[in-house]
Amino acid sequence: RGGAGAQSGGKMASTAAGKQRIPKVAKVKNKAPAEVQITAEQLLREAKERELELLPPPPQQKITDVEELNDYKLRKRKTFEDNIRKNRTVISNWIKYAQWEESLKEIQRARSIYERALDVDYRNVTLWLKYAEMEMKNRQVNHARNIWDRAITTLPRVNQFWYKYTYMEEMLGNVAGSRQVFERWMEWQPEEQAWHSYINFELRYKEVDRARSIYERYILFTALVLVHPDVKNWIKYARFEEKHSYFAHARKVYERAVEFFGEEHMDEHLYVAFAKFEENQKEFERVRVIYKYALDRIPKQDAQNLFKNYTIFEKKFGDRRGIEDIIVSKRRFQYEEEVKANPHNYDAWFDYLRLVESDTDAETVREVYERAIANVPPIQEKRHWKRYIYLWINYALYEELEAKASKRTRQVYQACLELLPHKKFTFAKMWLLYAQFEIRQKNLPLARRALGTSIGKCPKNKLFKGYIELELQLREFDRCRKLYEKFLEFSPENCTSWIKFAELETILGDIDRARAIYELAIGQPRLDMPEVLWKSYIDFEIEQEEYEKTRNLYRRLLQRTQHVKVWISFAQFELSAGREERLPRCRQIYEEANKAMRNCEEKEERVMLLESWRRFEDEFGTNATKERIDKLMPEKIKKRRKLQAEDGSDAGWEEYYDYIFPEDTANQPNLKLLAMAKLWKKQQQESEAAAADPDKDIDESQT
């Protein structure tokens, strides 16, 4: 067989070599494009969608004996080896292979796989970490040490190896071994965090001297090798010494830092920390020397934090006037330039006053306030005075709260009130603030005199309300009555004032006076909110349970207005009166309202009334009354009307909804026409349905 196969194979090879066979290609008969074109984008999208289709999970295999287990291991190892052979550089395949062997407790095989992987790529950090973690997980401490030693020798700049190695040794209680690893690490001059980790390690075991020596080596590196020439490292060293109560050492560290950085590389953070250290040691003269030394040599734009801390220190322990003059002088000069350029720039005056209030004495503040209020607005219009008046208010509040000078406060208020042109405009807040100040000084006659003067000179609603509020708090009800009378003489159209006056009399129990006030109020020819006043009067009578008077009020109100809400409120009142005849009365009100609103142009209001009536009948009515209200409900139809532009030209057509009420005799022809139109439309729909399905008609006829 082998010889024959070889001979036949030789013949086929010679035939193929002698004459090359050309494959047949099917000829395309129709070269026209297909009706449905498929784009490359569509092909890619369908391929992506089919990737998401879930494949059925592989069947579960149960291993029952050793032979099956060995067969399973052989197949899995062959799969892993094939994957590795296809692409040796994919480290994830090596890790999966090793982890699988580890899961079978084949530690020696897993080691072999990791070693083969390291031969492929020894710079892979994850590979070293997984290898060492496997050894630690299986309590192979010496193997783990060996791996960490190889890792830090091969890749000494990977800090993660060092951290893991030192942590492992510390967890094993091998403090000396962990210290030895740290020492090997420090020889490579690592980053700042590595040094601090070493220091914290020594501090965990109370080795303060060792920690100090590490700090010294670290500072030496920064000074000579210039690995980390940063101020914060020196500050941390000094704070370490301070924390462990080695104050002389801490001061020496600060002095060395100042000497090391010199005048060319001065940093305000170093001097602030040095000064705060001396402040904690109660060495105030040394603090002042440090601050002055730094301020004399550091540029002003780079010493803002230094200025701030120096100011805080002087406020605590030093001469306030001296440091305020130094720091405030610059900003005061800027504000002086602004107010000189524009004396009526009141915002600049506010900032200037805020500065001098926080940093200077009372006489200087008063001087600046006097200069500010001297710039009176040139035009007597209120909008120009709105910012200016707050200068006076702040001045008065400063004198009262900060300077504690009640006499000067009174003089400020009186001067301001004399300055205001009350015949043209006034500021009610100024009068009220003055009155409240006098009350705080327990000088009630002066407060009343001020408010009385304000009402006499320039009456305003706010002044009346403030004065009445004051007398109410003092329980002077007779004075409140007089003030309300004056208020209503001044502003009789103010409904809120009438209501408040009546409520006051109600609280005092004088019902007749309250009713008389309401009667006077509704008799006024002009009111700003009459509906609120009438509602308050009606609620008042309902609270007094005067139902007949309430009905009379509703009747009087309906004589003035036929608004639908009034009718509905009247009906709801009758329903809530709580008597036996409440339902007939309520129904009668609805009947009257319906008759009264037949000639109403606003058909939506009439529909609102009928809807309210229907809800009433649904809850309390009989079948007959329900049928009757259903017959009264209007028909909603859509209409069109012509629109005109502002210049009189046609602007098209507009659709709107209209209501046709059955009660209106003029609308009967329209209703009849509408019913005929609906019937015709129904017949048309039936004929169209019959034409669309003739088989159904044949089946129905046969049936």
TrEMBL record:
The keyword Nucleus applies. Residues 92-378, 404-555 form the Pre-mRNA-splicing factor Syf1/CRNKL1-like C-terminal HAT-repeats domain. Its main location: nucleus. It holds the Pfam family HAT_Syf1_CNRKL1_C. One of its GO terms (cellular component) is Prp19 complex. Keywords: mRNA processing, mRNA splicing, Nucleus, Phosphoprotein, Repeat, Spliceosome. GO terms for biological process: spliceosomal complex assembly. It comes from the Eukaryota. It is found in: Nucleus speckle. Residues 1-28, 683-703 are annotated as: Disordered. Involved in pre-mRNA splicing process. As a component of the minor spliceosome, involved in the splicing of U12-type introns in pre-mRNAs. PANTHER family: CROOKED NECK-LIKE PROTEIN 1, PRE-MRNA SPLICING FACTOR. Belongs to the crooked-neck family. This is Crooked neck-like protein 1. The lineage of its organism: Eukaryota, Metazoa, Chordata, Craniata, Vertebrata.
